[in-house]
Specification:
With about 180 residues, this protein is an alpha/beta fold. The protein is about 35% helix and about 20% strand. The chain has five helices and nine strands; from the N terminus they run βαβββαβββββααα. α3 packs across α4. The structure holds zinc ion (2 copies).
Length: about 180
């Protein structure tokens, strides 16, 4: 059975304060059912003690492995700092081949940078990173438009500038991918 739906996979216990906001925005943006998987433990081998960070690809694979339906979009979410390859950190990582992604909320709150808290910005950043990585799972590449959610984000300033909306070109690509997904069902 194939599934045109989205499953969010938390790598933590408990109910985060952004849960409802993220779920509602994802439903609105992608028009797909959104469900939450039971929490997964962080894979032991994902931790890099020399860096004090977790490997994004290992978390991505663990989130992927939790899939219950073929074609389902899977998004892992961790509150730990993650990195990949030669990059000091990543906000997220995705693969379109398996339609899975992972994001980290570690660097999305102002407190990480010793700045005064801003919950509105924090929620918006989480949705932005989630939508960006889900866009990759649907086959979208980075977009040159700095206000499009698919623009590459190297810093929080990039993330804040772009927000979580697709530019018209990327929106068309997302809609085409979602249409294929629905036809597969
Ligand atoms: Zn990207
Ligand atoms: Zn775009």
């Amino acid at each position: 059975m194939t599934g045109c739906l989205m499953t969010l996979v938390p790598f933590f216990e408990g109910r985060p304060d952004y849960r409802d906001f993220l779920e509602e925005r994802l439903k609105e943006i992608f028009g797909l059912p959104v469900r939450w998987h039971a929490p997964l433990n962080l894979p032991g081998e994902s931790y890099d003690g020399s860096r004090g960070q977790f490997r994004a690809a290992t978390l991505l694979a663990a989130a992927c492995a939790s899939r219950s339906e073929e074609g389902e979009i899977v998004l892992g979410i961790t509150d730990r700092d993650i990195y990949e390859g030669h990059l000091n950190f990543v906000f997220g990582l995705a693969t379109s081949l398996y339609r899975c992604a992972v994001i980290s909320t570690a660097r999305l709150s102002n407190s990480f940078y010793d700045l005064p808290p801003d919950n509105t910005l924090y929620l918006r950043r989480i949705v932005t990173e989630a939508v960006h990585e889900i866009g990759h799972t649907l086959g979208l590449d980075h977009c040159p438009d700095p206000h499009c959610v698919m623009h590459f984000s190297n810093s929080l300033a990039d993330t804040d500038r772009k927000g979580y909306r697709f530019c018209p070109v990327c929106r068309e690509r997302v809609d085409a991918a979602l249409l294929r997904c629905r036809k597969d069902q």
